[in-house]
Amino acid sequence: MDIRVKICGLREPEHVAAAAEAGAAYVGFVFFEKSPRHIGVAAARDLALEVPVGVAKVALTVNADDAFLDQLVDAVPLDMLQLHGGESPERVAEIRARFGLPVMKAVGIAGPEDVAQIDAYGAVADQLLIDAKPPKGADLPGGNGLAFDWRLVNRKYWPCPWMLAGGLTAANVAEAVRMTGARQVDVSSGVESAPGVKDAGLIRDFVKAAQGQAVPVLR
Ligand SMILES: O=C(O)c1ccccc1N[C@@H]1O[C@H](COP(=O)(O)O)[C@@H](O)[C@H]1O
Fold this sequence. Notes:
Elements: E1 4-7, H1 13-22, E2 26-31, H2 41-48, E3 56-61, H3 66-75, E4 80-83, H4 89-99, E5 103-109, H5 112-116, H6 118-122, E6 127-132, E7 162-164, H7 173-180, E8 184-187, E9 192-194, E10 197-198, H8 200-211
Parallel strand pairs: 1-2, 1-8, 2-3, 3-4, 4-5, 5-6, 6-7
Antiparallel strand pairs: 9-10
Helix pairs in contact: 1-8
Bound molecules: the ligand O=C(O)c1ccccc1N[C@@H]1O[C@H](COP(=O)(O)O)[C@@H](O)[C@H]1O.
């Protein structure tokens, strides 16, 4: 089975094209002003219109309110909302019901105590994104190029599809897939030459490394 890859934080048509041509299943746009990958709604609409059919367009938001989500969903053709803030399970369910799009909830983990909270989100989200917990005082709740201890999610089961994120690169994604059994992976910093600057060659290398993997059999 192929590993499904999401390339997040795209802002340029050439990088959307590189991701799609390499075989990425998802592309992500970041709507968070503190991020070097932030994109405005109008620019995201233009970019989203260039995404080939079959590649899912994901909008990453952080504790967004309904007014912003209304504006976003009206303007940009999207396939999924990624909630990467401190949204409660109730808020995730509310957004899912109100906006009519599948919702992927990001959960940051650093230790076993964080893994336990994933269950509550697995019951209300369409997908889960398991990421490293940001360091205390970090400006960004994700996109920090930080990996977590993959053994924490080894042999875990959640009732919806999930994606592995956090510090992934072409050099480590094979090992990450082997250790976690993830069928989907998400990357941002690991395909950049500088914060917020994507690199088409690194995108190609990452997708190739992720998809070249034999998937471990989970028992
Ligand atoms: O990428 C960002 O700038 C970002 C900002 C705010 C929340 C989440 C963000 N990125 C997400 O975090 C994961 C992991 O990033 P990285 O590969 O470790 O840099 C990324 O895939 C995005 O979904």
